[in-house]
Amino acid sequence: MAEMRLAPSEATSAAAIQHAIDALPETGGRVVLPAMDLTLDRGLELRSNVELVGQGQDTILRKAPGRVYPLSGYHNYGMRDVPLMFTEGLEPGMTVAVRDDRHGGFYETFARITWVEPTWVGIDRGLHSDYDAALNPVLVTAYPLVFGLGVTNVAVREVTLDGNREAQPAAIGACRGAAVYFIGSRAITVERISEVGFAGEGLGFQMCSQVHIRNCHFARNAGNGYHPGAGSTGVTFDNCVAEGNEAAGFFFCVRANHVTVRGCKFSSNRGPGISVGTRDSNNLIESCTVDGNAGPAILFRDTPRPVAMHNCRVLHCQLHDNARNEGSGQVVVLGDAHDLALAHNVISGGASRESAGIFVAPTATSVWLHDNQIEGCFPHVVADPDSLVAHDPVEACGYESVQPNHARHLAVSDDIAL
Fold first, then answer.
1. How far, in Å, CA of 352 to CA of 322, rounded?
2. What is the pTM of this model?
3. Alpha helices in 52-181 (DSSP H)
4. Cβ atoms of residues 39 and 62 within 8 Å
5. Which one, 7, 59, 246, 276, has least CB within 10 Å?
6. Half-sphere exposure of 416 (CA within 13 A, CB side)
């Protein structure tokens, strides 16, 4: 593997690091960052077969203060330029987001600037939506600190990230960005990353497969700590921590399947510790500690058939003093969730707010509760007998059960509506 070890004098800017990444051969390689404390005026983009490696707590990458640039008027879908009231401070190569008050989510555009004029900038991809002059359209210097778009076989390791949240007037949405972010990609490793204070999600990925997150810590972000989303399949989270985030510690988004979350800790988040929702099926949560969250330790969100979550297991977890502000139980199962197993967990309530140990809505079915130790909760279980079953209804689940055809709905491409 080709390796480029950067001296401090060679890693003086995000542009210099990006140049090193882009200078690797087509077969890829490794860029090793020195011990440093560097402010990034743009995100670092990984290409296929590239590893970005730092020196742990001694390599700190901080997001630059954000800026907001109002559009000068309406602009339409597919255009690779953006009309602005002014462009001072923008440069080619910088990464930005474009949206208005209505068009967020996947309608938000994340792009790299290609040229700059006094009232226009060019971008490297077409806008993902029309942006309405009456809906406050803006270009913002909000971007992931490290990201990959349509890439294969990439890794980021041993880096400390600071989102500099207090200096960000605008965030990037969860569909288009996070402190560490991937979309339409495969074979991703994120390992020993410590991150804090991003104006958005901590770690997020959309439409990805074969993703492995290990020994990471994401804290005090404006959104969720971890966000596997949009059909991502075949994923492991091992020994990771999310704490003090403004939403959930861990948020399964739409159709996050065959995911194993093992040995992780989710603490003191302002939403649930773990949130599971639409089409989030065939997942395993095992040997995790979930404590002190404002919402339930684990929330199975209110979703109807045929898109309700199913075939999920929660095993050998420690769930303590959650639902401090909201939630009917330490574990809450809503909507038409079905074929769930909760077994061998230790569940306890807290003194600040009384709640059930496990709350199962009467619309849920085929829920198996087995050998859970519950204390300090009242009542221990709230469930219609017709919602419960006597035997484990869950088939093989988690990353260990993934098969090649389970990712057939995904593509790896640099042109996948990125």
1. 10
2. 0.96
3. none
4. yes
5. 7
6. 19
- Phi/psi at 320 (5° precision): -130, 130
DSSP state of 6: -
Amino acid letter for position 343: A
Identity of the amino acid at 94: M
| Regions in the chain scoring below 50 on pLDDT | 413-418
The H or E element that residue 347 is part of is strand 346-348
Q: Tokens 């399947």, residue?
A: 257
CB neighbour burial string for 130-149, b if at least 16 within 10 angstroms, e if fewer: bbbeeeebbbbbbbbbbbbb
Burial of 371 (0-12, 13-18, 19+ CB in 10 A): exposed
Q: Per the structure block, which two tokens stand in for 98? A: 């474009």
Quickly list DSSP for 203-261: EEEES-EEEEEES-EEES-SS-SEEEETT-EEEEEES-EEES-SS-SEE--TT-EEEEE
Tell me the two tokens of residue 19: 């140049």
Give the pLDDT of residue 411: 72
Cα distances (angstroms) measured from residue 38 to each of 15, 41, 159, 234, 370: 12, 10, 12, 34, 51
Using the 8-state DSSP alphabet, how is residue 75 labeled?
A: B
Structure tokens, 159? 């880096």
